[in-house]
Structure formats: C-alpha cells, structure tokens
Amino acid sequence: MRSIRGEHSDVTARWRGRACIGAGWASFLGTAGDNHPHAHHAVQVVNAFGHPVTLWTPANGPQSVGAAVIPSDQVHALLPSDTTVGLLYIDAESTLGRSLSHMRERVWLLPDIDTVRIRQAFERATAGHPEGFSQLLAGFAFQAPIDQIDPRVSAVIERLQTEEHLDRTLAEIAAWAHLSPSRFAHRFRLHTGMPLRPYLRWLRLQRAAAGMVSGTSATTAAHAAGFADAAHLSRTFRRHFGIHPSVLTNLANS
Predict the structure, then answer these.
(1) Alpha carbons 81 and 166: distance in angstroms, whole number
(2) What are the tens digits of pLDDT across the range 201-231?
(3) CA gyration radius for the chain?
(4) Residue 122 pLDDT
(5) Cα 25 vs. chain centroid, distance in angstroms?
(6) Taking all residues of the chain, what is their mean pLDDT, rounded to a whole number?
(7) Measured at the alpha carbon of residue 134, what is the angle toward residues 129 and 139, in degrees to the nearest 5?
(8) On the CB side of 17, how many CA atoms lie within 13 Å of its CA?
(9) Taking a C-beta distance cutoff of 8 angstroms, is the pair 153, 189 a contact?
(10) Three-state secondary structure of the chain
(11) Tens digit of pLDDT for each residue in 225-251?
C-alpha cells in the first residue's frame, strides 16, 4: 500500500524530532513524515502545535484535527506536515489506557487546551521524564468499567511487562493465572480484545522500538526482542506503525 501522502507524490517526507519510549508509554515531538495506514494496540493522543494536522481513518477519511484520541487497534494514518505535533502512545492495558479505550470506539476530538503547558509536558516526556504526563493527561482520569477488569489477567499482563523471555507457551502463561489454557485464552481475549500471541508480538515490538530509540541497530534490537531477523521486525513494524524501523534509528542519531 502506498503512503497516505498521496499516490502521485514522489517526495519522501522525513520524520524529524525526538522520541522516548518507557514502560507502557512512548512519546514523540516533532514533524510527521510519510506513513502508511496502520493499527497498533496503544491508545494514541495527537496534539498539533500551530496549524491543525490531517488524520486519516477509514470511517472519516482525511480529517483536520488540533487534538484527538485514537483508540487502540484503530486503523489510521497521519499525513506529513510541517506543523510540530506531539504523539503520545499509552499502553491499552494500563488504567489510563483502558479508561480511554472504553470512552469511545472511534477517534474523538479533544477541546481546545493550554498548548503551552501541553508542549512543555511533551518536551519533558521526550527527554525521558514521563511525569509530565500528569499535566498532559489532566482531565482524562476516567474509570474503566469494573466488569471489564479481570484481576488474574491483569496480574499476568503486569508480569509479562517485565518478563525477560516472551517465548512462553499458552499453558505456561495460563498456569500463572491458575487457569486452564482454554479458559485463560478466553479471558485474555475478553480483557485485551486480542489473542495472547498477537499481544506477545506487541510486547516484542515495544522492546525493539525502545532499543532503536536508544541507538541500537535494527538487527540487534530485532534479535534482542525475539524477532527472527531485521526483515521480520521491519514487516511487523510497518504493519503496526506505518513506518520503517529506520525512522527510529534516524531520530536516535539526529
């Protein structure tokens, strides 16, 4: 599939700015470059500083936005622009991520906010200080419906976040929750909206991305995260983020 930039464009728009990835979150501040329609399991907050940016979704087509929330697993693309934009990615299984996910099923626009304060929060976040999110997300403190939270699955997800090796079988992981594999698989899908294997792949992708943002080569990051090789990582990365992994390594080296 061609870049959402346009089928007649031969110009490559580069991503420029800073990115930082931590446990359960990622942040970017800069200008958006080329990307393909994609979907990932993070809840994404978009905030333009200056002119609005154009967000494309299958339901709405191109839409001019100043600030918006994109629910997890929603296909979208951000058109290249010279406008400085902040992108915040929140783990969909975190308390905040789950509350945002349950608020809407489609992209929803945010009202006008204090752009100076929000930009300062993004600047701190991309410098590796995520405590700025407390300002960035003020007013988002919704509660996820209690009947949507499975404490045993939540405990397993928390353990997976810090598990060194993710090449576990369904039976091994189900045992952590003291459930049969079939029962755990059913509960896991209800809790996360996706089967276990794609979720483990999502965790591997986060780890590879964090390595590349820190300056690790795509090949080294791929192997460390459990991908077969850099080509496997590249295919998976493009499907989930619409860009080649080299975008992250370029940001790390800029």
Answers:
(1) 37
(2) 999 999 999 999 988 999 999 999 999 999 9
(3) 18
(4) 86
(5) 7
(6) 84
(7) 155
(8) 22
(9) no
(10) CCCCCCCCCCCCCCCEEEEEEECCEEEEEEECCCCCCECCCEEEEEEEECCCEEEEECCCEEEEECEEEECCCCCEEECCCCCEEEEEEEECCCHHHHHHHHHCCCCEECCCCCHHHHHHHHHHHHCCCHHHHHHHCCCCCCCCCHHHCCHHHHHHHHHHHHCCCCCCCHHHHHHHCCCCHHHHHHHHHHHHCCCHHHHHHHHHHHHHHHHHHCCCCHHHHHHHHCCCCHHHHHHHHHHHHCCCCHHHHHHHHC
(11) 999 999 999 999 999 999 999 999 888
Can you tell me the distance from the alpha carbon of 83 to that of 107, in angstroms, rounded to the nearest whole number?
20
Contact by Cβ (8 Å): 225, 188: no
CA dist 142 and 123 (Å) reads 25
How many Å is the maximal CA-CA distance in the chain? 55
Compute CA distances 247 → 13, 144, 147, 186, 189, whole Å. Answer: 11, 34, 40, 36, 32
Amino acid at 87: L
Give CA–CA dist 126/132, Å, rounded: 10
Cα four-point dihedral sign 54, 56, 60, 61? positive
pLDDT tier, 57 (very low <50, low <70, confident <90, very high otherwise):
very high
47: β partners: 67, 86
